[in-house]
Every structure is written in C-alpha cells, then in structure tokens.
Write a structure and sequence with these properties.
The complex is a heterotetramer, with 2 copies of chain A (284 residues) and 2 copies of chain B (316 residues). By secondary structure, chain A is an alpha/beta fold. Chain A has helices at residues 3-9, 35-40, 56-63, 90-101, 135-150, 169-188, 229-236, 247-252, 265-276; strands spanning 23-25, 32-34, 70-71, 76-78, 107-114, 117-124, 154-161, 193-202, 215-218, 224-225, 258-259. Chain B is of the alpha/beta class. Chain B contains 14 helices and 9 strands. The chains are: A alpha/beta (284), B alpha/beta (316). The structure holds zinc ion (2 copies).
C-alpha cells in the first residue's frame, strides 16, 4: 500500500524514462552501459545482471509471438468513487498518469499466442500509480480471466504493484476477492495460469491473484511480499536481513517456482505453457 | 479509558448515579430531577452518536470492552467448541474458531481474536494473524464443507501481521489461498466486521454470501494511520485519512461493500455488549435464513455475482 | 517402530500390572499413592498429574455411557504371513500376548453411545506388542470405520502404539493406507471422527489414521510423533529439547486441538461429539 | 565403488576389455577367446543375480549410478518441467516433481530425489523428505486433479527424515495427509518403487491404482538396519533382517503389496540405466492403459479395493 512513496522515486530509475540519454548507469554495480546495448539486453545490466524496470510493452514484445498480440484492455476507465483528495484530487492524479502512460489505468494486455499457446497476456504497469490495484485493474484482470476461460486460452499475468489503490478505499480491497474468484473460471476449464512477478509486487496483488498461479516465476532480485519493508521495519524495529523478500529468498522459502532472468523469460514461459496447456499446440 | 467524545455522556451518567445515591441514602424523592437528567442523557447520547466523525468511529471500533469473537461465541451460541492449531506449524492465538450451535442449528465459525488486557493482547498479537491463523481458518472451512454446516466469520483485526516471521512463511500466499478457499465454500457463508476490518488480513475471511458490519466498525484497504503516513507523511493526519477512506459502515453500505449494518446500542457496543450481540444474532439468523435452500453451485454463483460486481469504473 | 524395546520396559510401569500391591510409586514425583485412590483417580497421580498407562478397559469405562458398550472386535486373528522369527517365532510372541491380554491382537472396541452420541469406540492396547499395527489392527480400524459409516455413528479411537508391526513386514505398512482410506467412508457421511492420543503414539499409527481426526485430543505428557526419540537422537547426534514430542509441545505446534487430563476426558469428548455429530442426540 | 558380489563380474569384464585392447593394439585375432569369455560373463552374471540374497538386493537398490527420479524424468519423458516449493515454507530438494509428456500424453509426476555424489546427497538430504516435500507432492496431486492428468510417483527414499526439524513441523501429520490426498486422486495413479521404499515416507506417495517395483528395489515397513537394531540390538544383523522382512520385489508381489515387477537388465539398473528405463517406460504405459476410461469414482473404488484387501488374518 506504500505506493505513492514508491512512485515518487520512480522517475530516477531505469526503464520507463523518456530522456534520450546515451549512457545508463547501473544502480547496483555503477557500470556505465550504452543505452542501446541495455535495450538489446532487455534492460538487464550486462555487468551484474541487475534487472532495470521496463515498460509494459517490453513484456508484451518478449512474451507474445510476433504479430500475435491483440490488445483487449483499455475500454474501462477509472472514476473517483470516494471523492478522494490527498495532495491532489484523485481525478487529477489519474489524469497525470493517463497522460504519462497513454493508458486509462495500470494494466495493459490482450490476446496473444505464446510459443504457439493461445493465451491472454496481462501486464501491470508500475509507471501508473505504482501499479496499484483499483477497480479498473481488478476489472481487467477479471475480464482477462473470463476471456481466457471463454476462448480456452492460457492466462499469463506479469505483475508489478505496490498493492491496492488507497484512493478507491474498500473498493480496491474488494478487487482481491474479485480477481481471485475470476481465476476459478480459468481453473474450471483446466486451463493454466502462469504469473511472472517483477519488482516490486507487494500488498493486495501479492495477497490475491498473483500468488494463486499454477506456476509462479519471479525476476531476479524482485521485491515480493505482503507488507513492504518499511512497514516491517517499523513493526519489528530492527533491520531486515539481506535479501529478505527478494525473489531468491522466496524461492528458498518454497514460494515461487523459479527465478528467471528476463533474457530467458520467454523460453521458460513457453516451456511451462506448452506442458500445462491442455489443447494442441503448433510447433512455434 | 473513555474516549474523548464519550466524556460528557459519562459525566452525566456519573451525576445521575450520584443523585440516585443521595435519594436513597437521604430517603428523598428526586425522581423528577433524575427523570429529566435521564432524558437529557438519552438526547446527548443520540446527538453525539449522530454526529460521530469517521475517526471517532474508528476509535469506537477499537474501544476496550467491545465484544471480541470469543465474546460473540459466548454471547450468541448455545454452546461451542474451539478447534486449535493449523495441523502444520503452530496454533495462532490471533485466530479462533470451532463448531457451535446457534438457535439449535450447527455452524462453523472463525474470527480474529484480540485480547482484553495488554497482556492478553500481546498473547493474541493484537489480533494480527500469522499464516498459521489463516491455515487454521482454512481448516475450519474444510470442516464446514465436509459437514455441510454454514460458515460464520468474525472480522476484527488491524491487519495481518506485518513482520518477518509472517512474511517468510508466505503471508501473502496464505491470504490469497484463504480468500480463494472461502470463495469456494459449498455452504452458506456470512462474514461480519465486528470491530476493525484491516485490509487483506480482514478480507481473507471476508468472502461471505452476506457481509454484515457493526454500526461502529470500520473496514478499509488500509488503516487510517498508515494511509496518513503515506499521503501526508504524518500518522497524526489519521483523522483526515479516516474521512477520506470512506471506511464507515454507512459508506461501505452505499459502496456495495457490505450488505447490512448491524445497529449498536446507544453509546456503542462496548457500553452494552449484550444488546449489541442480540442485534448481531438476529442479523445472522436472518442472513442464514436468506441463504437457506441454496445449493453449492447457487452459493458460489451468489458470491461470484456479489464480488464480481464490486468496483467503480466507466466503460469506453 | 522401536516397539519391542519399549514393551520390554512396560511391566515396570503403572496401570496394566496384576501384582496386588497396595501402594504405587509415581515415576515422576516419587509420591507413594494408595492404589485404590489411584484407580479412583483414573491412574492420574494426585500429586503431580502424571498419567500412568491404563488398560484399554479403562478407556471404555470412562468414555462409553453405562451399559452402552457392545464389543465388535476380536473375530479377526493374526497369522504369520512372513514366517517371521526374531528372538522367538512370531506365532509364539503372539500367543504370549494373547494369553496376557485375553485378546487376539492390540485393539479392542465396539458400539457404544458416548454422551448419548451413537459411536464406534476403538481402543489400542499398548500391552499387546506395544500397540503395534499389523494386519489385524488395520482390519479392525477399517471395519470400525465401515461400521460407523453404515450405522451413522461417530468414530472415536484411542491410540497407543509404537508404530507398525515389523513382524508382518510390508503388510503392516499397507495398513496405513487401508485405515486412512476407510476413514473416508466416515467423512463421506458427514460423521465426526475424534482421536485421543495417549502415551506413546508414534510411527505408522501417527502417520495415518491417528492424525486425520476432525478433533485430536492428547493426554498430558504423552509422547507423540513419527520417529521415536532414540532414532532422532541417532540422526542429529545431540540431545532432544525438554518436552520435545510431548502433547503440550504438539499443542503449541498446532498439531493437536487440546491436551486433556484423563479426569476430564469424558466431558471433553462428549462436548466435541455432541457438536460434531449430525444427528439428534438425547440429553444423556 | 562396486558391491562385493559384483566383483567377479567386474573382473571378468576388465579381462575382456584388456584382451580387446591387446587384439586391437597388436592386431591379433582374439575373437574366439573374447567370445568365450563373453559367454562366461553372461553366465556368471545370470548365476550371481539368480542367487542374490535379499540383503544383496538392498545393496543394489542403493547402488550409486542407479536411476533416480530425475534420471527417470530425463530418460522416459519427451519433455518435462519441474515445479518447486510447497508455497508455504520451503522447497524440499528431497522431493521433485512437475508436469511431463510421456509418449505424447501429459502426466504429473513426483518422486523422492537422491544425489549422485556425497555433496549432492547432502543437498538432497539423501532423499529423506521434510514435511515441505510432502506438501510439494500434495500440491502436484492438486494440479493433477485439476488438470485431469494421470499421476506418477517414483519412490526412492530410506524414509522420511527423522529429525527435530521434521518432527516439529508435523512429519507424521503430513505423511497421513499425503496418503489421504493421494488416495483421493480423481485421476489414474501409478506408483513405482525405483530403489528404496522406506516405510511411511515411501508410502506417502505410494497409494497408486497400480504399484510397480523395479526388480532390485525394496519396500518395507522398516529398513533392515533399524529392524536389526531393534530385534537383535545390532545393525550388523541387517542381512538377517532383510531376509526376515520379505522386502524384495518377488516377496512383495506374492504378498499382494505390489502389482508388477519391472525387470532390470543383467547386472542391475545401475549398470545399464537406459535398458532399465526402457522397461520402466513400457510398464508405466501399460499400467496407464489399463486405467484408461475409469472415472474418478471407479478409480477411487479401485484403490479402495486394492488397499482394503491387503493384510493377513484369520476370521473367527
Ligand atoms: Zn550492473
Ligand atoms: Zn506424581
């Protein structure tokens, strides 16, 4: 839920920015990397393997088979059910993110084939209000699940979220139940659901649809958990152990199936989907 | 310790008690004076409670003396037994539950459990469950399904415990599972927000066919304090956050998040738990009656329709 | 599985012995207690609460409503499928236990009402080959479950066992699957199954029907686990913590519902059964 | 390190290899001598293996180089993916499993996993699962049910881990649950004892509609060493215990504990894993074929009949 704090920091990090710099400095190993090289490397630092955040389009480009993607999201737009005002009115905040991302809310996706497997691919957008889940994100996830069930598609969701969206109050909270229940339509048809957890995935998203997948993959070094580290530190009044709540730690705890380098993400997803998908799959 | 806005009421009550003592000891007839004061008291209480701010309701929801899950069990069931442990790792004292008889009808219940004293509260971890608590809840859901008994859930938590021990055992994972398991119940499920309905830790046992809320309870995506800390970098802005979050019973009813408000007696449930529990019992029985005769598929559909429909957005 | 070692010690302990001594010394607190007082106290030391082992009849007497018990076990007799000989041939060993206990194998039970609840009550006999589970114990448990299902009775099992019976080899092991599956007949009819774990309950009994009960009660201080303490000590090569694998420890670990003093066992069992049993129950 | 009784075979093989080398290097025709020695080798191998004692089979079942679960996956599946973790506490490396394609048909598999080297074995805890391992197995059973895929279980464990960490997290409880969960599978289930079938830790994933056993595997209520320690207070009596326990494939077949023996190539599976796996694959496919077309209820009945019927006793 500690979203706003997080997305205030966002612009100083890699990936989403529009400034046409030629060189990018790695926040982990300080290496200066030529931007074009970094892009070709899917924004993984060639020196230390640090995974920069990348725009949602990158995941679509990486995962969807060429020319197979057909967007279905975007018809649902957020409103201001609570009349919420913090440092600015919620509608203004929304307008700002909408302008920045060109999308109505923090999710993007549609039909695609992935390694030949008919799929619904949904990607959460951390650049939009910290990927927070309000009514629209919940609705799009539910519609995506319903679409997958209706058309016998696998469901693939790439998550990135600070949690539920405060500005929609309890309505945001209820999206946890809504998305969870919608998944059962997919499961009832014996279709697979695969989740890719990226940095960060916390709060209500982790505590609902994100962790209910048949297969949970996580990008290296991603922060994944229920409570954010700051909240935990406040609770226990001591520092957190190194690597706590990071993908590798969660793997050890039996909570994710694999930690997958972004450069091997597509082949890994395809490998799982082709075995978990019940229908015939063309060799793609 | 009384709440700030309760003071005038308590002072007037004190005055009435003093007069009554005087009357008795001095054998005087002060019944007229006392009668007038009692009328005034009732008026004052009505006035104060009609004008309660969301933040004041949050305080009421946390008031000591407010009925906890075990108070409810004690108060509304003819008999009950507690089942303990998650059969895997620990017994989480922040979650209680078991099998009970409600007006002759057997039910399975579960609820967050706070303590009455500081010591008890520490033992109960202030009603903040670890994964084990949700595993216990899920064990009870299994039992309800197998025995075909209605499932009652009492929500009263500031939230799931946000600590290392909970995170490393998959707090998020188990909350998601608990939501999923409850949504799949083959029996009628009724959830009641008794006091505090803190975020995912509350919703984990909140996927009822009917969701009721006590008049002065709150239910929110985040506590007012945490919300204030994030938005205004100051937990003292909690009052503002409480208002902004629309977390009161009436707000939630109009948002479609809850189905029914259970009225509390004048002064709040903590001042008259018995009256509050009588109302709660009535509401529970009526809710169960509404769900009678629905088969597992119809119950699932009912829950799906309900939660699928919650949210605010525009098409196009 | 460390049965023989255990039942060799048995005769020096309380409960089952036939020597007509007037005083019994408590092995825990050393108090000398008049035997008749101890009996009236259900063999619980009045000084320290130590639970002596008691014969199976005691549990029947404690739990079954007066005159309600009707034995159903005893028609099934063990054989020697492996031709097993250790320090003596298995048939001789069996004959010895049969003579000592007057029963064909390590289990006794039948129909009863418990607090008015129609039940099948089965009690394992630690005095017979350490309560080890071979074909006969497995068969009687399975028949008991089937009887409960057929006659709409609750199933109540009091366990005491060193584990599976070595002398019947893999046949003993298979009783774990057999008993487990038979329980599903009870569960399918929405009937309750309550287990009372007494000292000791280990090995294959703990790892099958004993721990699958709707309600697990344990007597105070009972040793309950999968591996025996000696085996664990050998494995980890260090001493076990105080109270490890004892009822109270297991309660903390969330593995049993309640630790119940034998003197309160009947009222506790009745309280649970009356709420878990689906049929009408007379006020008993 | 070769087993004692394998020595004559290995020595003869060595001799043949030496002759072959000589023939090649010196360009001599030793084909007749070599042919005779090869016949002798085959005869020797047959003789030794026909007369194996139960204890020798136990040693074969533990022989290094014997195919492990992942070797089986590698060897008989066209492709497979591993799922990891119990989604609650840990990933137990002593249990592996996932989804695979077997002759074009999708299956879910699980198995105990030993290491090949000491280091690997320590990492795999010598194939002795903790509760997490069984929870992983149960997760895979859920998946098989939901996807409607046949379930294959490969048993190769000295037993469930008998240590504090396992006991305190309910080793017995989870084994019981795993037996129960597997018995409730709505899909065909085939279990194979690959190497060691140690007690409850093996049976936890052994409740198949068909239970197969490799020719030199063992399956027992207790390991020969532990049995000897209890009965004769001397683990060195393991040889005697191995015989007494009737733990060989042939004994188990006649006791009705297993349904089919999968023959191993001359010299045992560890000397020719490929041939062993080819036989195993054939047996698995045939077993699955036998179960084709049975609905969930029929599959349950089949398992119930099977296990309900195991045991030796007299009536009356
Ligand atoms: Zn770097
Ligand atoms: Zn004593």
């Amino acid at each position: 839920m500690a979203l706003d704090r997080l997305f205030r920091r966002r612009r100083t990090r890699g990936g989403g920015r529009e400034v046409p710099e030629l060189w990018v400095r790695c926040p982990r190993c300080d290496a200066q990397v030529y931007k074009r090289d970094l892009e070709q490397n899917l924004w993984v630092c060639p020196e230390c393997g640090y995974h920069h955040r990348v725009p949602v389009e990158t995941y679509v480009a990486v995962l969807a088979d060429p020319d197979s993607f057909e967007p279905t999201t975007g018809k649902v737009r957020p409103t201001d059910p609570l009349g919420f005002v913090d440092t600015e009115p919620y509608p203004e905040r929304l307008a700002r993110y909408q302008q920045k991302t060109g999308r109505p809310d923090a999710i993007y996706g549609g039909r695609a084939t992935i390694g030949g497997v008919p799929s619904v691919l949904l990607v959460m957008d951390y650049a939009f209000a910290g990927g927070s889940m309000g009514s629209v994100v919940g609705e799009e996830i539910a519609r995506g699940a319903e679409l997958a069930a209706a058309e016998n598609r696998a469901l693939v969701i790439v998550t990135a979220s600070g949690g539920a969206r405060m500005q929609e109050g309890a309505l945001s909270l209820m999206q946890m139940a809504k998305t969870t229940m919608a998944l059962d339509l997919v499961f009832a048809k014996r279709l697979p659901y695969l989740a890719v957890l990226t940095d960060p995935t916390t709060g209500g998203v982790t505590a609902s649809f994100a962790t209910l997948a048949d297969v949970i993959l996580a990008e290296p070094g991603a922060l994944i958990g229920f409570a954010g580290p700051r909240v935990i530190k406040q609770t226990i009044r001591q520092d957190l152990p190194e690597g706590f709540q990071r993908s590798e730690f969660l793997k050890k705890q039996g909570l994710v199936d694999e930690v997958v380098d972004r450069r091997r993400l597509r082949e890994t997803v395809v490998r799982f989907l082709r075995l978990l998908y019940p229908g015939e799959v063309d060799a793609a | 310790m009384p709440l700030e806005f309760e003071r005038p009421i308590l002072e007037l009550e004190e005055k009435i008690r003093a007069l009554e003592t005087t009357a008795r000891e001095q054998n005087l007839d002060l019944s007229e004076e006392i009668g007038l004061l009692k009328e005034k008291l009732a008026r004052l209480e009505r006035e104060i409670f009609a004008g309660l701010t969301p933040w004041q309701r949050v305080q009421l929801a946390r008031a000591s003396g407010r009925p906890t899950t075990l108070d409810v069990a004690q108060g509304i069931f003819e008999e009950y037994v507690e089942l303990k442990g998650d059969r895997a790792f620990a017994d989480d004292p922040a979650v209680v539950g078991g099998v009970a008889r409600l007006e002759g009808r057997r039910v399975v219940f579960v609820g967050h459990q706070k303590g009455k004293t500081t010591k008890e509260n520490i033992a109960r971890n202030f009603g903040m469950p670890h994964p084990e608590g949700y595993r216990k809840a899920m064990r009870l859901m299994e039992l309800a399904d197998r025995e075909g008994l209605p499932f009652l859930a009492f929500i009263d938590t500031p939230g799931a415990y946000p600590g290392i021990s909970a995170e490393e055992r998959g707090q998020a994972w188990i909350i998601a599972r608990s939501i999923q398991r409850m949504s799949r119940l083959r029996v009628p499920a009724v959830a009641v927000i008794l006091g505090e309905g803190g975020s995912g830790g509350a919703l984990a046992i909140g996927v009822g066919n009917r969701v009721l809320i006590m008049e002065n309870a709150w239910y929110s995506v985040i506590s007012p304090e945490s919300c204030a800390a994030i938005l205004w970098h100051d937990a003292k802005e909690a009052e503002r956050a409480a208002a902004a979050l629309k977390l009161t019973a009436r707000d939630l009813l109009s948002l479609g998040v809850v189905d029914r408000i259970v009225p509390e007696p004048g002064g709040g449930a903590h001042r008259n738990p018995e009256a509050a529990l009588a109302e709660l019992k009535r509401a529970l029985l009526e809710s169960l009656e509404e769900l009678d005769g629905l088969d597992p598929e119809a119950l699932w559909q009912d829950r799906y329709r309900k939660f699928r429909g919650i949210g605010a957005f525009e098409e196009g």
